[in-house]
Amino acid sequence: MKKMILVAVLAAACGGKSKPAPTTPEAEKTEPKPTEAVARTETPPPAESKPADDSVAQQAALTEQYELGKKVYAEKKCASCHGDHGEGNPKNPPVMGEKALPEAAPKTAKLRKGVAFKTAADVEGFVKAKMPLKKPGTLSDDEAFAVTAWMLSENKAPIEKKVDASNAASINLR
User: Fold this and answer.
1) Are 68 and 144 within 8 A, CB to CB?
2) CB distance 159 to 173 below 8 Å
3) Residue-number span of the structural domain to which 147 is assigned
4) Does 9 reside within a domain?
5) Which letter, b or e, does each residue of 21-49 get, where b requires 16 or more Cβ atoms within 10 Å of its Cβ?
């Protein structure tokens, strides 16, 4: 019984592993040692998260601007002239929909005579100077850009980030 215990202890101590292969000078030249492999491995640079974060921030700012635009449209009573959905009426032009914001002012236009709407800057400039009808020029820059961004987004204009003085002229309506 003592012999069996001794054999079991010796077997456990050895772990049943075979001896490592002998190293030769040839093997050392071709196969890197584990520590050498780690030392030569370059750590890739961290993935840049700025573009994704920037895009999310831009979308959040644009959504906030749209919400402000809807709020200004309601609070400044734009709907009293242009309709609840911007559809216009026989006396006032539509600001949303198929016939909204044509490039050339209609011949019957009074306020917009000679003003072309080619870019978001054109629309914002008109909104800032002429709206609301009974209190023209009273909108802040942020309010005018917000209403413009909201109307243009409802008209499927290609807006990718918050509309402001730095980018409004580059947003083409057609």
Assistant:
1) no
2) no
3) 76-170
4) no
5) eeeeeeeeeeeeeeeeeeeeeeeeeeeee
Query: 107: exposed, middle or buried (C-beta count within 10 Å: 0-12, 13-18, 19+)?
Result: exposed
| Residue 126 falls inside a structural domain | yes
CATH number of the domain within which 110 lies: 1.10.760.10
pTM here is 0.70
Number of domains in the chain: 1
In a domain, 30, yes or no: no
Report H helices in the chain: 2-14, 25-30, 34-40, 50-75, 79-82, 120-130, 141-154
Q: 114 in helix, strand or coil?
A: coil
Under 8 Å CB-to-CB from 112, ≥6 apart: which residues?
93, 105, 106, 126, 130
pLDDT (tens digit, 9 = 90+) per residue, 82-132?
999 999 999 999 999 999 999 999 998 999 999 999 999 999 999 999 999
* Residues near 54 by beta carbon (within 8 Å), at least 6 away in sequence: none
* Residues 6 or more apart whose Cβ sits within 8 Å of residue 133: 81, 111
In a domain, 95, yes or no: yes
